[in-house]
Automatic annotation (TrEMBL):
Record's keyword annotation contains NADP: no
SUPFAM superfamilies according to UniProt: Acyl-CoA N-acyltransferases (Nat)
Pfam families (UniProt xref): Acetyltransf_3
Domain N-acetyltransferase: 28-186
Keyword match ATP-binding: no
Record keywords, A-Z: Acyltransferase, Transferase
Descriptive protein name: Acetyltransferase
GO-annotated molecular function: acyltransferase activity, transferring groups other than amino-acyl groups
Originating species: Ignavibacterium album (strain DSM 19864 / JCM 16511 / NBRC 101810 / Mat9-16)
Family: Belongs to the acetyltransferase family. RimJ subfamily.
Amino acid sequence: MVRAMIRELTAALMEDGEMLIKFLKDEYLIRNFKLDDIEALVRYANNYNIFRWVKDNFPYPYSIKDAEQWITVSRNTNDGLNYAIANQNELIGGIGVKFKEDVYRYSWELGYWLGEPFWGKGIVTEAVKVFTKYLFNHYNIRSITANVYEGNKASMRVLTKAGFKLDGVIRKAVFKEKLFWDLYVYSLLREEVK
Ligand SMILES: CC(C)(COP(=O)(O)OP(=O)(O)OC[C@H]1O[C@@H](n2cnc3c(N)ncnc32)[C@H](O)[C@@H]1OP(=O)(O)O)[C@@H](O)C(=O)NCCC(=O)NCCS
């Protein structure tokens, strides 16, 4: 038990305040955003097939200026923790949590996206597993939630495979692309993490 915890903690290396978690046989990383990421961020984030499933504050089209702003903001915000998903060569996606306030402060909200060429390889499922473990090991939170829009089967599947449970559906809570959609709310409790 203690050994397993030490393994997990050492897997999440903190180098000079830099976040680094390796996963899927060290082929992929969760790490801080870097200014070098701008080109890859624009290449993969500038995609309607991503935009349609995320909040409107994720821009579309996604410009170089948006990427520069995001990289600066993501490293300096007090609103949450935001990291890049990367392979050995470049950034391929993003993962993070938004802090919540008041009575919700022990429950953070997870978000993620992946460049379309990398979909369907199990990358985000594994990223969610290692990232949620990291969060529970390093922060005094009770649960992690995730909000998925009606129809986003891939994201629902990721969460289920990563151990999240569907808490419920908030009807027509989402207004996206001029239409109202149901919101599927998932959560993972501290004691459910293996
Ligand atoms: C959701 C997303 C992050 C998934 O990343 P990924 O690395 O491709 O996910 P994984 O490969 O780990 O798992 C995807 C699962 O969904 C399944 N899936 C994909 N499309 C599906 C569909 N249309 N219907 C049903 N299942 C689907 C895959 O088969 C896989 O399940 P399996 O392992 O049982 O076969 C990626 O598709 C994405 O960035 N989408 C746009 C942004 C987004 O939706 N963000 C989340 C907002 S809540």
